[in-house]
Design goal:
- The chain is α/β, with parallel strands linked by helices and 272 residues long.
- The protein contains 10 helices and 9 strands.
- The protein has an 8-stranded parallel beta barrel, surrounded by 7 helices.
Length: 272
């Protein structure tokens, strides 16, 4: 009944506190992912990293695993860039960096996630003012990505980490209000467990505009380790006709590869 592709989070390196499971070069991580039964990897990286795309393409052809998504968070967490900053040179740097990510994704044949780089409304700031600015800059990136065949997936993140787009409703309303036709909602099971009263209703709200889905259990550890009913989530995803990637992005507990192995075993048992 289900025919989804599974991906796993990866990076060149990351602390143990980050939800990154495979560490190494893109080529190495593709090899590991394929061995563990995954179809793809998501790549957490900086916008200015140079990759050997020919070598990566060769590994993809040999293993069957590919780069499915480029994650842009480091432009904010390391580069301190934000799409709603008051300083014009910061928003310009954010736009320039995001264009680099889109170019990178085009070379990979992948899409991108827009998460932390969207920024946060400053304390006491007008949400309308900052969301309008965000929409203006997202429209620029929306069109840039559309011209290159790269979709932008806006991640819904919990309220303890951000103050914009903490629910599916808020995110979808933004996409609809500003007619961002190349932007999609990106849901994450862990974040939904915090801010959504009904995760199933959140999935249904994104029908037709859900571009990406992250998997982690309620403790943010591997799928099957906690309380989440992933079977119901999969039923809802099937109900809305979701055809995108299901990507495991959880804490590397007990270690990255073991968490990746346990997660995909749990998820595949639910769909067979």
């Amino acid at each position: 009944m289900y025919n989804w592709k599974f991906a796993v989070s990866s990076a060149d390196d990351a602390p143990a506190t980050a939800p990154i499971l495979l560490k190494g070069t893109v080529e190495e991580n593709l090899e590991k992912a394929a061995r563990l039964g995954y179809d793809a990897i998501e790549v957490h990286t900086r916008e200015d990293v140079e990759f050997d795309y020919d070598a990566i393409r060769a590994v993809s052809e040999r293993t069957g695993a590919r780069v499915g998504m480029v994650i842009t968070g480091r432009l904010n967490t390391e580069g301190m860039c934000s799409l709603i900053a008051d300083e014009p040179y910061i928003t310009q740097a954010a736009l320039d960096g995001m264009r680099q990510y889109i170019d990178m994704a085009q070379k990979f044949g992948a899409d991108i996630v827009v998460g932390w780089v969207k920024g946060n409304v400053p304390k006491g700031g007008s949400r309308e003012k900052y969301l309008s600015r965000l929409a203006q800059n997202m429209r620029i990136l929306n069109d840039y990505g559309k011209e290159r065949g790269v979709k932008l997936n806006i991640e819904v993140i919990n309220r303890y980490e951000v103050n914009i787009f903490t629910t599916a409703e808020e995110t979808m309303s933004f996409l609809e209000k500003y007619n961002l036709d190349n932007c999609y909602a990106h849901l994450d099971a862990f974040h939904m467990g915090i801010d959504e009263c009904d995760p199933i209703a959140a999935i249904r709200r994104c029908k037709g505009r859900l571009g990406y889905f992250h998997l982690a259990d309620n403790s943010r550890q591997y799928c099957g380790s906690g309380q989440f009913d992933f079977g119901r989530m999969l039923e809802a995803l099937d109900e809305i006709g979701y055809e995108g990637i299901l990507s495991v992005e959880c804490l590397p507990v007990p270690n990255g590869e073991e968490a990746a192995k346990r997660s995909i075993e749990h998820m595949k048992a639910l769909i067979h």
